[in-house]
What we know:
Blueprint: E1 2-6, E2 9-12, E3 17-24, E4 30-36, E5 43-49, E6 55-57, E7 65-70, E8 75-80, E9 89-96, E10 113-114, E11 118-123
Parallel strand pairs: 2-11
Antiparallel strand pairs: 1-3, 3-8, 4-5, 4-9, 5-6, 7-8, 9-10, 9-11
Amino acid sequence: VQxxxxxxxxxxxxxxxxxxxxxxxxxxxxxxxxxxAPGKEREFxxxxxxxxxxxxYADSVKGRFTISRDSAKNTVALQMNSLTxxxxxxxxxxxxxxxxxxxxxxxxxxxGYWGQGTQVTVxx
Length: 124
């Protein structure tokens, strides 16, 4: 069972990037993205149920980031627009085979499967 995150890179302020999280070996019911900037704690970015019944975002990315799925590829994407230097971090996808309830979806402790992380750097 594996989660593979990809799509990070270097972009200028105001630019866009699209991250992908591909699952292999099993299916998951809840997918999330977290990020960790240097010297900071890991923080929740976005999450959704695979079936689309629930989607949520951190306030800091709401309106700029979109989490979506590609069923054919068993992939969840994070489209990031209007990026700022404050978005610079290592981004991790995490998933659970369970439907994590809304009040718990932002807690990293609920996820037993994590991707390896992909670096996003936004230059000013």
